[in-house]
Design goal:
The chain is an alpha+beta fold and 239 residues long. The chain has two domains: 2-103 and 143-218, no CATH class; 107-139, no CATH class. 40% of the residues lie in helices and 22% in strands. The protein has helices at 30-43, 54-64, 90-101, 148-166, 171-188, 193-214; strands spanning 2-6, 15-16, 48-51, 73-78, 81-88, 110-123, 126-139. A hairpin with an 8-residue loop joins strand 1 and strand 2 (15-16). Helix 4 crosses helix 5 and helix 4 (148-166) crosses helix 6 (193-214). The longest helix has 22 residues, at 193-214. The chain starts with a strand and ends in a 25-residue tail after the last helix. 36% of the residues are buried. The structure holds zinc ion. Residues 5-7, 160, 164, 171, 174 line the site of zinc ion.
């Protein structure tokens, strides 16, 4: 039996499929190389990542009983062992590609600027001229503000599937361990350490908690700092 282990979709179901094959194995997009290296590091064994085009993805999704926009990625297991590649959706690959190419990453897309504001007051007949500094936000280009969720989700999908590639079929594990690799994946795509950490924090605090009610199989109460799913307990860092 071949089982598809999927990441972050609305319908959190295991699904089974056979004969999942790729039409264009000869084509390797640049993001596939980088994502493959990231997955190899996380899985701790040589693996690859495949980015499908929209038509091929629609076919793969239909084989698993999903709509193409529902399915973000999957790893096929055969006889309890993962195959050597993960499939990522075109949307996930586009997000990863855009993120890698952008000189300004998500939390750096809004620049704060200190602007001097002069204030004139009259106190006891004297006009006092004072200055204060006001911080204003100024968007820089390209700005990821409107794509922050999609970017975080794409990075998490890559990390999540990489945990499956390591051999762990449990969704709650893949989601929790993957989240702890999210910042690594972001940095490998050119992000700074602090920004990558911010994205991981965003995922851990804003997205992950929703799993508890929306897709319980992808959530664990042990997925917390110093919990049993903390890969580095006691280091004071999370995720
Ligand atoms: Zn999964």
């Amino acid at each position: 039996m071949r089982t598809l282990l999927i990441a972050g979709i609305a319908a959190m179901l295991f699904c089974c499929a056979t004969g999942v094959a790729r039409a264009d194995v000869a084509v390797t997009a640049p993001i596939e190389s980088v994502a493959g290296a990231i997955a190899t590091a996380i899985a701790d064994r040589p693996v690859s990542v495949r980015c499908e085009n929209d038509d091929a993805w629609a076919t793969l999704a239909a084989a698993g009983g999903f709509g193409p926009s529902q399915l973000l990625g999957f790893v096929s297991f055969s006889d309890g062992a993962p195959l050597d590649y993960a499939e990522l959706s075109p949307d996930v690959c586009r997000s990863l590609t855009g993120f890698a190419a952008a000189p300004a990453k998500p939390t750096k897309c809004v620049h704060t600027q200190r602007r001097v504001r002069t204030v004139v007051r009259t106190v006891r007949g004297k006009k006092l001229r004072t200055t204060t500094y006001v911080t204003i936000a100024r968007p820089a280009e390209p700005c990821f503000a409107d794509r922050y969720f999609a970017t975080a989700e794409a990075l998490q999908t890559l990390a999540h599937e990489s945990i499956h590639l390591k051999g762990d079929p449990v969704e709650a594990d893949a989601e929790c361990f993957g989240m702890q690799w999210l910042a690594y994946a972001a940095q490998q795509l050119g992000d700074s350490a602090d920004d990558a950490h911010s994205i991981a924090q965003y995922y851990a605090t804003q997205v992950y908690p929703q799993r508890q009610t929306q897709s319980p199989a992808y959530w664990s109460g042990d997925c917390r700092q110093n919990g049993s799913l903390d890969l580095t307990p006691g280091d004071g860092a999370w995720p």
